[in-house]
């Protein structure tokens, strides 16, 4: 079995958006207790690399490297960059501590996606994919607009397993675009 029911969300995202491949390098942000790590490890196999990051402890998993740290802190981002040269997939299931206050939970969730995006833009190989959970709200369109120029396309996906949380959705950004050559280079 899986360590979390969230595992089924990643399975469905993968089935919908074709994210995980044999041999791929996957970085999973907000990975505890490790359900997504289990799914990713199965799909990339022994030739692949899976790295999980969380501020909570992640119990050891065969074939998975873990980092304990807060993704809003530079020290954690640096540690991840040191471990992973280049990634094929950066995914985030990070969620803020819920207050029940809709606007606040939304704003905090958007902030976490922006942290994940920063790391994704550093690490992703050309053609790589970025997936992040976000709670719906007023800043979603701005967030999406900031991700769009960096990828071939961005879509919103609501896995069946997310139905219990009506405001939860995933932004799936496919195909990291190669940085354009600056004019004058
Ligand atoms: N995908 C995981 C799985 O399948 O087991 C479940 C992830 S759970 C929904 C969200 C996780 O995000 C929590 O473990 C939480 O500690 C983590 N998280 C939230 N904010 C974080 C931050 N700033 N840095 C690192 N992890 C964070």
Automatic annotation (TrEMBL):
Specifically methylates the uridine in position 2552 of 23S rRNA at the 2'-O position of the ribose in the fully assembled 50S ribosomal subunit. The gene is rlmE. Belongs to the class I-like SAM-binding methyltransferase superfamily. RNA methyltransferase RlmE family. Keywords: Cytoplasm, Methyltransferase, rRNA processing, S-adenosyl-L-methionine, Transferase. The active site is at residue 133. It is found in: Cytoplasm. Its EC number is 2.1.1.166. It catalyses: uridine(2552) in 23S rRNA + S-adenosyl-L-methionine = 2'-O-methyluridine(2552) in 23S rRNA + S-adenosyl-L-homocysteine + H(+). One of its GO terms (cellular component) is cytoplasm. S-adenosyl-L-methionine binds at residues 34, 36, 54, 70, 93. This is Ribosomal RNA large subunit methyltransferase E. The chain holds residues 15 to 199 of 252 of the full protein. GO terms for molecular function: rRNA (uridine-2'-O-)-methyltransferase activity.
